[in-house]
Amino acid sequence: MAVLGCGVAAAGVHGRLVDGGYFDRSAESSRAERLLTEDYGSGTPKLMFVARSTGAVDGRQASAAGRRLVAELTAEPGVVFVRDPWSSPTPSLLSADRHAALLMLAVAGDDQQMTRTAERLIRKYAGARPPLKVEASGRLSVNRYAEEQSRRDLVSSEMIGVPLVSAVLLVVFGSLLACALPLAMGLISVTGAMAVLNLLARHYPVNVFALNILTALGFGLAVDYSLIMVNRFREELDRGLEVPAAVRATVRSAGRTVAVSVAVVTLSLCALLFFPTPFHRSLGAGAVAVVCLAGVAALVVQPALLALFGRRLSRRPVRVRRWRARNGGAPDFWERLARAVLRRPLAVLISVSAFLVLLAAPAAGARMGFIDEDWLPRDAAPRLAAERARAEFPLLNGSTLTVLAPRVPAGSQAAERMGHVLSRLPGADLVQGAGGDFRDGRRLAAPPGRPADGAGKGTWYSVTTRAGPYSATAQRLVGAVRAQKAAGPVLVAGETAALVDMKKTLARHLGWAAALVIAAIAVLLFFFTGSVLVPVKAVVMNLLSLTVAFGAMVFLFQTGHLSRLLGGTATGHVDPLIPAVVFCIAFGLSMDYEVFLVARIREEYLRTGDNEQAVVTGLRRTGRLVTVGALAVVIVLGALAASSLAVLQELGVCLALTVAIDATLVRCLLVPALMGLAGRWNWWAPAPLLRVRALVLSRLARIRVPHRPPRMPRRVRG
């Protein structure tokens, strides 16, 4: 009934998601953008229309049609201004052959309002308007395309991932019923994820990519948790326990592991909530809810289904039963692998670590930049329009900064001095404002008809540079402008300023958020294992495997070694928002498999007291399970590579690659090698910490649900 209710609550979730929330609204560039839009009728143009004509666009007939188009656009709700070559002669807004004109629009509102305004304008004005033909371009056009395409890609990725996962589970379990249980848990988690996102989107801007990422994450984790529960339930039945006792034993052992795993993954994803960007916060809130739903499904719904179906879940094909009988119920491969690693643990540790460092080396060449039209498929309409516009209008090949000095009166001598100073900065090409045009410290003739600053308000200038918006030259220019001294603060808006602010925001928040989460996870693992070395080892191993994901971002997508095969081109840079998402999700997933493996090793060590035998038995018992669970997660996340959007391809491939490397090289080679080298020190901890652990666990064990006995009738009491 709860799942059906979630299905109803999830209705209409697609319509409430928006491709936005990428910027910190408290950053200087965001504040400058709001002031320019609300008080000065200026700002950064985020939507462009290119009007083409078979003849000259500044001819009589085309000019009349162009002025009508500009008048209609200016009258549209949400449009702040329209810059065009007809209202005021601006040669840079005309193509060299004079057959195309560029219209640059600034749109007011938050991300959702701007996207909806752009969607309305594109539908209304793009197309044939004789004698002109109008096509849309710009950031808002890219956002609109990405929003629509992500909805289509969600269906295609699910159609790829679910059948493949089903096939893997069927091969592993050899039973349709046992295969159906993890799929049912995945369905519950995905349905709950959609309901949570729909509820969250009613009160907070939720990014459209969150649905694709969280449904894949929730389905993969739910299958993972269900897999370990079903596998342990089968083991308990093979020991001869009856169904009720087997269910209780499964929840005591595997259920405890799942609960710790849920807590670890949740703590890792909570780091996203510390970032001020709506993209990270909405993704983090949704991810935490999805992981908790997957855990609830595994610990509440799964035991009920195990008790319901009972021994029918233990049925295996005859050939599997015979093979297990011949091999004593143990998969020989994992035992041989564990003993081979323990024979030369130091050599394995050094060689595998060197290989992972080599895979991570490309991360040193990362260049930061926001998602733009180069992240779209080659044949996407906004990309084709942007490429034609860049070829026709050299203005678009550079970048523009809008500089605002709120306390410098417009038309004053201080404003003129500011124009001279800005035009002399390294990298600045042309400075334009209501007070005139400046280049190389000289004042040029001001073009007529330019919108003036508000009466009695501050001064703003448009600073153009020939360098790209994400180049080092443009970023240094932002720093030089902000370092200028005026009567008050000098604010800078634009794509480059937003990138500089985003890098500072991530650097300020990522460090302490990661430190806080890592410390919390280490403490949780200590209480789970009673060891100091195991949590430290887990954190170091996870960080090592995560560097591979960052190297893959640069090698596969920034330079285009994989993105070209997936229908796109080299992105040229890495969006600064993506590494934080990959870090939090991949760290949690990697720690998930660490908990699975260490829990079984600890269980065997407590039973036998032999560290080497515990490592061998733990890997033998969980190697197959971790591999299959990781394979399911890799399939679900890797299915995002079928998307036509490079951002989903990058997230899916990098997360899938991290999980694959972690489940094979790290968990099957590095962890056994390290635990073999450490010996009995694996389970050492200072006596004071052990006393604190024992005290906390004893207090938790005494927690009981309060129960009030029923009141007896008076005559019975008598």
Question: What descriptive keywords fit this protein?
Answer:
718 residues, alpha+beta, six-stranded antiparallel sheet, five-stranded antiparallel sheet, 11 strands, 63% helix, elongated, disordered C terminus
Strand content: 5-15%
Largest sheet: 6 strands, antiparallel
Classification by helices and strands: alpha+beta
Please compute the radius of gyration using only Cα atoms: 30 Å
Helix content: 55-70%
> How many helices?
23
Description:
With 718 residues, the chain is α+β, with helices and mostly antiparallel strands. It is built from 23 helices and eleven strands. It has a six-stranded antiparallel sheet with strand order 9-8-7-10-6-11. A five-stranded antiparallel sheet has the order 2-3-1-5-4, with helices on both faces. Strand 4 and strand 5 form a beta hairpin. Helix 1 packs across helix 7. The chain is elongated, with a radius of gyration of 30 Å. The two termini are 45 Å apart. The relative contact order is 0.11.
